[in-house]
Amino acid sequence: MPAKTQTVGATYQVARQNKKKDTMPITILIGAQWGDEGKGRVVDWLAASADIVARYAGGDNAGHTVALDGEVYKLHMIPSGILHSDVVSVMGNGMVINPVNLVREINVLRKMGVDITPERLVISSRAHIITPAHIALDKARELALGDNKIGTTLRGIGPAYLDKTGRAGIRTGDMLLDVEEYAERLVNAIELSNEDLRSQGLGTLDAREAAHSYLEAADFLRPYIRDVSIYLYQALKAGKKVVCEGAQGTLLDIDHGSYPFVTSSSPTAGGALTGLGVGPLFVERVLGVAKAFSTRVGGGPMPTELHGDIAQHFRGSGVNFWDEFGTTTGRPRRCGWLDVVMLRYAVSVNGLSELMLTKMDILSGLDELQLATAYEIDGDRYDYPPVTNEQLERAKPVYETMPGWREDISNCRHFSDLPAAARDYIRRVSQLCDVPIDMVSVGPERDQLVLKGTSEGLPTAAQAM
Ligand code: GDP
Ligand code: IMO
Ligand code: MG
């Protein structure tokens, strides 16, 4: 009979050792709203003290912006850690990958001086491949839905996940097969989707021609593909720090979002574990990122949406790269007051250990700010979102008015530098959501961050992890 300690698994032992040091190796970063919260810039900052940054969901529907020394990087599939030369970027099995667009993204980044090699970028062999037929089907479905369309990014995301769960998809690992066999799988997959297109009376794709560029991409990507779950397990056992980079946001989650106006993956905290193949005992922090106001792109309910001058103030005119126009599609984003009901929900669904607010600088110049602290629906008060979308469509926000501020805060670096009204706003959101807010951002650049409780200056990312 082995001694009791010998029966304890390696994961548990690492977890226990790390617990003693009072730190676990994984930080999960989640979008707490409808996406575009500024996740990319926060991941870039956290990456300074991480060894690995791993994306776990979505595909090139995401657009993560990182501004660094006047250069603006737009990342769609590649994790935002790629801008740190000593960080390995990982693309998990929970992602859907368009290989041709991925090669393009790698080449754009290389032209901008980013070093990308198989030592710096690891792609899961279990991610699913988006084919040109998925893109055609995405367009066809949106067209058929007419006024009820979801407003997808038309990147083929939904149809690719549909094939995954329908067990008809092809995976990144298939690129490691003999070329003829991979080509055959590709052609078969496209032909299968062609049947769908045909049944809708739509034009079909020439499967062989469509497969051609995919074979070229496979030659390029082959050295990057491996088993990510085992790679991460070994790294975690060796004490490496991992940041899991969420894409999309809590309210776009296939299970927990405003279905059907959602994406087809799991951007919430649970998705990080299944989307990378890592266990929960390694997780230390779940950090939610929210904008200081609300935005949404695409269809679906948005109780605090505004249409007048305030919405325009939030959106900007499009001259600045941080104005509210989609990073992936260029569509103007819908804008509104901060919806605390949705944030409270994000805290609960993800078990957030902390929340961060971005774009606080954009609130400058408004006399008053409104916080939606609850909804009123058919005469009843709701502190959390209602069960059905129909109720959500009827939700009237219950607003609490707070004083605004006029000062430009983009050069603030300490909490004490912020105007009292800005500090009160942050404190009130934290109170209403019952979650600590120790960090806000006041501009898109890496150092435009304000951290609570520091009088000597901005702590290093290592101090913050
Ligand atoms: P993500 O998808 O969550 O990574 O967010 P996006 O990159 O799609 O959109 C966020 C936009 O806000 C980007 O253009 C960022 O550069 C910008 N941004 C992030 N934080 C701040 C901030 O504190 N102030 C301002 N003005 N812009 C910010
Ligand atoms: P990041 O990671 C904002 C939205 C689309 C649409 C819905 C479904 O940059 O925050 P899809 O193409 O996924 O089938 O579209 O989800 N959406 C996003 N909105 N930010 C994103 O990503 C998004 N990814 C998808 O606009 O409403
Ligand atoms: Mg985005």
Quaternary structure annotation:
single chain
List segments where confidence is low: pLDDT < 50 over at least 5 consecutive residues: 1-6, 454-465
Q: Total strand count, please?
A: 20
Total of DSSP H or I helical runs spanning 4+ residues: 14
Structural class: alpha/beta
Helical amount among residues, as a percent range? 25-40%
| Cα shape | globular
Rg, rounded, reads: 22 Å
Distinct ligands: guanosine-5'-diphosphate, 6-O-phosphoryl inosine monophosphate, magnesium ion
Give, in spatial order, the strands making up the sheet with the most strands: 9-7-5-2-10-1-11-15-19-20
Strand-residue proportion: 15-25%
Distance N terminus to C terminus? 41 Å
The pLDDT mean sits at 92
Which sheet architecture does the biggest sheet show? 10 strands, mixed
